Amino acid sequence: MGTFILKRILSIIPVFLLATLLTTGMIHLSPVDPAEAYLTAAHIQPTDENLAQKRQEFGLDQPFFIQYLNSIKKICQFDFGISYVSNKPVWDEVISRIPATIQLALGSLFIAVFVSIPLGFLAGVKKNTAIDHFSRVLAFLGASIPSFWLGYLLILFFSVKLDLFPVEGIGTWQHLVLPSVTLAFPLIAIYTRLLRASVLENLEEPYVLYARTRGISEKSIMAKHVLRIAISPMITGLGMNLGKLLTGTIIVEAVFSWPGFGRYFIDAIFNRDIPVIQCYVLIGASLFIISNLLVDLIQMYIDPRISRKEGYKQ
Hints:
By secondary structure, the protein is mainly α. The chain folds into 2 domains: 2-76, no CATH class; 96-270, MetI-like fold, CATH 1.10.3720. The chain contains 16 helices and no strands. Helix 2 (12-29) packs across helix 5 (64-76), helix 6 runs antiparallel to helix 7 and helix 12 (232-248) packs antiparallel against helix 15. This is Nickel import system permease protein NikB. GO terms for molecular function: dipeptide transmembrane transporter activity; nickel cation transmembrane transporter activity.
């Protein structure tokens, strides 16, 4: 088990180095000159003299390898540079916005898990019944309706017509409901079908037949055996979508005027705020890495055979 965990942690290092390489290379691949973008954001007329000065200040006159090493050093110190627009440290601004995005992501995950686990499990156990057909319709709608359109529909009915929830902003739990539901709806569709398919597959496994022949109650078989193993693909999906939610709530944050990290990134794109864009890409990669690591550890706890298989491969 210790070898399995150590191997997973060490695998983070090359991915992190590659992500840092890509964020550093963005400056050279992008047609936008960072020095010119900074001067434009500061409402300063770019000239050859001040462009050369800013390139030297940003270290862009150095070889790429030196820039790469400097980027790693600064990132380890949580130094992502200064925003071109606000002239404040990017990390300080990100820290002030991430809690709102985390709140939105966790709220949507809670709703998705709370709905999809019982719905997907019952759809698998009661195949071709009304609840199974309902899960299919829900999955079809979740895969078909764009998030921004669903968000506007929820605002129209629950905010404008029924006046139950606020239209925009943050502050109370009422502000969290509509954007969380908007994010959770496609996840519910995915997780419900994943769990249903996994339950149907596990019901055909020999261990279910053996448990029944031993006289174990059907309720115990479903709860302690089938559900515990069938939920494994859903946990993998949760880990993948956690990183996606923390960095990909851009559209929903824009629709509901949610002051999170995604909206900050959109503003940075329009303003060509390169340090913020680099920070977003690197944090997004890091969140995906950490999410996958957590999923591996949870999967190992649920199914210890995973760590044993890794040991056999070695």
